[in-house]
Amino acid sequence: MFDNTDEYYMREALKEAKKGFDADEIPVGAIIVCNDTIIARAYNNTEKLKDVTAHAEMLAFTSATSTIGGKYLQNCTLYVTLEPCIMCAGAAAWTQIGRIVYGASDQKKGFSKISTNILHPKTKVTKGILVDECETIIKQFFNQKRKY
């Protein structure tokens, strides 16, 4: 059954994060929703692409703007499992995205640790959606890495 709540869409972003986990990428997943439709899906691909800018959000922005045929995402929402870094927050500002919803806070590199003013003035932010699930996948990934 279709459910257009923040939790539903964050679960979809978590599916992307799981793909990243399985690909041995830092498991961050992102989706972009416009008019109750998912128009972009992505997960981190920095290792595969050997590109430090290939964060889930950046890839989702590229896909979404291609899908809608324009560079602005004012009527869209980004769902991402981890708080965007300053680079991704800057890109979000340039897209003028209407809303950002994230799960886990990034205590080291999250944009809110540096400045919340980086976003477009009209962008609304909701944090902490499915925070436990979003934190768990990141912790599992790094705990697994530390075993080797």
What would a concise description of this structure say?
With 148 residues, this protein is an alpha/beta fold.
Describe what this molecule looks like in 3D.
There is one protein chain. Helix content is 43%, strand content 20%. The chain is built from six helices and five strands. The chain has helices spanning 6-22, 46-49, 56-68, 86-95, 111-114, 131-146, and strands spanning 29-34, 37-43, 76-82, 99-104, 124-127. A five-stranded mixed sheet has the order 2-1-3-4-5. Helix 5 (111-114) links the parallel strand 4 (99-104) and strand 5. The longest helix is centred in the N-terminal third of the chain and has 17 residues, at 6-22. The protein starts with 5 loop residues before the first helix and ends with a helix.
